[in-house]
Amino acid sequence: MSIISCTTLFFWEYPIEEIADIFKSVGLKSMEFFPENPEFWDKRFDEDYLKEIKSILSKFYLTIHAPYIELNPSSTNPYIQEATIKETLWAIDLANFLGAEVLTIHPGKRPTKRPPTMEEYEKFYHYLDVCIPYAEEKSVTLSLENMPKLVNYICHSVEEIKQIIERYRIGLTLDFAHAKENAERFVEELHEYIKNTHISGVCDGREHYPLYHSQIDFSPYIKKLVDYGYKGSLVIEINDLNYNKELSKEEKISELLKEIEYLEKLI
């Protein structure tokens, strides 16, 4: 059976130990760990801190999201591309250290808002060529996330993602809100490749709202994925910036509980 999870990014302003306590208090047994949460990011090379975090997170089934803020594997700036590779290799080591089998990665994009050229694709392929063997060595499965359909983004269509994940033999992290109206096709045609999912709603064309508010009803497709035998995480991925105010800790917990209840009834 699939496991309901949540990204630590929703509670980005809190220490990891406090986030873990929140997750336990609402009954979550799974977590998608986002290492760019400020506290962890500042201390990520502190060995004593890492041992403490490993002990805390060992209570959860973990998936990890590779760093992506300010990064781009297809950047025209070679230093940014190099940094993206280094951070992904570090994230693979982190996944191995914490015992997470699945690491979600972002595809590349053209830095300017113009259609990607072969140059961007070649750089993305180089990124995969470097990172995949290292992930295999560390027994970590790389899982490529589908992107929203924007002019400069790589990997937003079913056809393109299928070609890449079959060529490189990697997994798919299906982000339902990114897929929007194509969610059914993603589930129907790529369900056998899906290793992880991101669950949220869409309002006025924008992603990562609460699922129960979504103007696109993803529930039939989530249920269909589960019916296909998907046993991975259903990661709740709400963006707190989509609210018209800053949410308190209690308000975030309340929103999380509503999402958990919605998913529990669905699956």
TrEMBL record:
List the signal peptide residues.
none
Residues in coiled coil: none
What Pfam families is this protein classified in? AP_endonuc_2
Say if the entry is tagged with keyword Magnesium.
Answer: no
Determine if Isomerase is one of this entry's keywords: yes
**Xylose isomerase-like TIM barrel domain residues:** 24-250
Please give the biological process terms from Gene Ontology that the record holds: DNA repair
The molecular function GO annotations come to: DNA binding; isomerase activity; zinc ion binding
Highest taxon in the source lineage: Archaea
**Keywords for this protein:** Isomerase
What's the name of the protein? Xylose isomerase domain-containing protein TIM barrel
